[in-house]
Please model this.
Amino acid sequence: VHLVESGGGSVQAGGSLTLSCASSEVTYSMGWFRQAPGKEREGVAMLRADGYTTYADAVKGRFTIARDPAKGQVYLQMNNLKPDDTAMYFCASSSGEVSRFRSFNPLMYEYWGQGTQVTVSA
Model:
């Protein structure tokens, strides 16, 4: 499975961005993670083929994950961005069902994209 992210960029606080992840195959679980300099990779949002979605507390109400299986795309709509959202954002994929208790455990995902940078200025 090959994943390619796009849509990153630089915005001011309060702005919006939509990230896209193009997948060579449709897989059961898809997640978005981010990693800021000097920090560990953290989960942001996850979506499963059965419709289950979950979000990190830091982004609830601001970010939305969605997928278009016909196009092999997964999206992350990010609104009301904050400087703390600045990070490299990664798309991740698992062939199987990722448990809701392990939604943001990077080890649950076999495939990863190269990342797209999001920078939010104050």
Observations:
- The radius of gyration is 13 Å.
- The first strand starts at residue 3 and ends at 6.
